[in-house]
Amino acid sequence: MTTVDTLTVGLIQHACVADSQANLDSSIQGIKEAAQGGARLVLLQELHNSLYFCQSENPEYFSQAETIPGPTTERLSKLARELKIVIVCSLFEKRAAGIYHNTAVVIENNGKIVGKYRKMHIPDDPGYYEKYYFTPGDLGFTPIKTSVATLGVLICWDQWFPEAARLMTLSGAQLLLYPTAIGWEPADNKEEKQRQFDSWQIMQRSHAIANAVPVLSCNRTGEEISTTNNSVINFWGGSFVCGSQGEFIAQAPDSKDTVLLADINLHNIQKTREIWPFLRDRRIDAYGDLLLRYRDL
User: Fold this and answer.
1) Which residues 6+ apart lie within 8 Å of 98 measured at CB?
2) Architecture field, domain 6-291
3) pLDDT tens for each residue of 185-230
4) 54, 89, 156, 218: the active-site residue
5) All structural domains of the chain with their residue ranges
6) What whole-number distance in Å separates Cα of residue 184 and Cα of residue 128?
């Protein structure tokens, strides 16, 4: 549990290229800028080391996976220790031969890995063929305690499921963090793009409201074209931080590399729950059907 009321956080939004080291360099440059701006917690976007390879199914991409600990966590651990900040990164994890995960790693300000989260909800849609690459997570919805706050780390598709946010909250998460890779198809018209973007924001803001916890959502930006099937995604950026009542604290533009800084008042969690006691009034005795896939009447 943190001992301070106000926490400065940084979100690093950037476009990615085919060179993994160049991508990591971009993330690290952003981390340094955020730390200079006072950030004590920095969140990176989903799969920040690479292009979003899940636009197609290609076994060659498994070679991009790495172990945890591994090269990226070693480099970021050193940086966390030097800057005395907490870093949340997002990696293509090679757990064993044939077992790969989409994994977020939390690195403490002393450089030690204090926890990780493996993506639980795995999409399988045109342009987002993640089930081909990622084994569903098996670490559950367990918050990770750090020197700055207890973090409920989830990943992208998880952000559409209120159950995940709730379970993190019920286990003591003070912040919900979503490293993300989501965007538009070029064929979408302006109205459809706006509907999708609004839905994405509203859904995550609703998690903040329902659970009285701030939300940090870090999305990538830029256009990416798959070399396998010419699929195109225009990642919409828009990384944001909202407070425990869903109010916007900071937001990045849709098409620009951005180091987004925000000050979060952690004491507002308690204040909000005293005004809106949603957790108190839950009818846990009547929610058994939530364990059903669908309730056939």
Assistant:
1) none
2) 4-Layer Sandwich (3.60)
3) 989 999 999 999 999 999 999 999 999 999 999 999 999 999 889 8
4) 156
5) 6-291
6) 12
